[in-house]
Amino acid sequence: MSQKLNWIKEFDKPLAIAGPCSAESEKQMMEIAEQLNKDYVQVFRAGIWKPRTKPNCFEGVGAIGLNWLKKVKDEFGFKIATEVANASHVKLALEYDVDYLWIGARSTVNPFTVQEIAEALRDTKKVVLVKNPVNPDLELWMGAIERLQQQNIQNLGAIHRGFSTYKKTKYRNNPQWQIALDFMNKMPEIPMVCDPSHICGNREGIFDVSQQAYNFEYDGLMIESHHQPDEAWSDAKQQITPDRLLEILRKIELRKSDDEDAFYHSKINHLRNEIDETDQGILETIAQRMKIASQIGELKKEHNVAVFQPDRWKQIKDNSVQQGEKLGLSEEFIDKLVRAIHQESISHQNQIMNKENSN
Ligand code: PEP
Ligand code: MN
């Protein structure tokens, strides 16, 4: 935590950004701000300009909504946040003294857009948050942060909102946690906020995804909340009431990065030694498998038989999935594992096939 940028340290609880997907009316904004618990929520969010997938949908109320955001700040004391997608949004947001500006997932994919926003924000002391791009590209996400850093913008943060997939999974946007964890390893000073609303696309999964984020020691959450979620003009299915939000924020358990307790340390060291030994065993077993695969490769070469045998591959996979199931390992995991091992065997055998005969 100590290496994180200072702006995140001003909060004694983890950062919670909440508020509607979109500003709809002054009444709606005031109603929601009134209902959000000020002890748990520090920043009020609302989209003013909305990037919609299809035309002819509600595309945000536009600049008039900034008056309502400002009113929320003045009357309820929240910091306020909105999405900016071009230089004129930035100019208006700064005029209305918006405290946190975020770059949306559809903008992060476009270096021209990010550059334009970065230049418009040059030298700002405002907090600027960058959502992950819609596609799973770590470099693009980090590149956006670097463009902002190059314009001397220092109060930066990242928002993990998941990644689009063609095939729909249980998530609207697949979290692919590893990408955000890699981001945190490569840019440890940048605070990481999770957006479970856009990851889940529904209300039911929000607690679990939020808890998962805190298990990974994220610095905060951005959760869409609306006083009448079913009536919301955008993202109705994923918005939750301020009451439900409070329940979630109270229930989440925070994890520490370590514990001073001596018993904990001796126990975890012992278990880690066991893990190291087990890993060693796994690698030795895989190396042994590759040796056998190479012998098979020699045999195939002698008999001029093709390296890849689809029936045999299917048999290996089906057996492994069946055995894995008995051992409590998921089909998805076994599929990835066996595929990786099989590909390595195939590449060993290909090397043998392509080797010039030495005699
Ligand atoms: C939003 O936060 O309302 C939004 C449009 O998010 P994203 O850019 O993650 O789709
Ligand atoms: Mn939304």
From TrEMBL:
Q: What enzyme category does the UniProt record give?
A: isomerase
Please, which domain of life does this record's source organism belong to? Bacteria
Which Gene3D superfamilies does the annotation name?
Aldolase class I, Chorismate mutase
Q: Which GO terms describe its molecular function?
A: chorismate mutase activity; transferase activity
Q: Name one GO biological process term.
A: chorismate metabolic process
Q: Tell me which InterPro entries the record gives.
A: Aldolase_TIM, Chorismate_II_sf, Class-I_DAHP_synthase, CM_dom_sf, CM_II_prokaryot, DAHP1/KDSA
Domain Chorismate mutase per the UniProt entry, residue ranges? 262-353
EC number of this enzyme: 5.4.99.5
Q: Which UniProt keywords apply?
A: Transferase
Q: Which PANTHER family match?
A: PHOSPHO-2-DEHYDRO-3-DEOXYHEPTONATE ALDOLASE, PROTEIN AROA(G)
Q: What is this protein called?
A: chorismate mutase
Q: Which organism is it from?
A: Moheibacter lacus
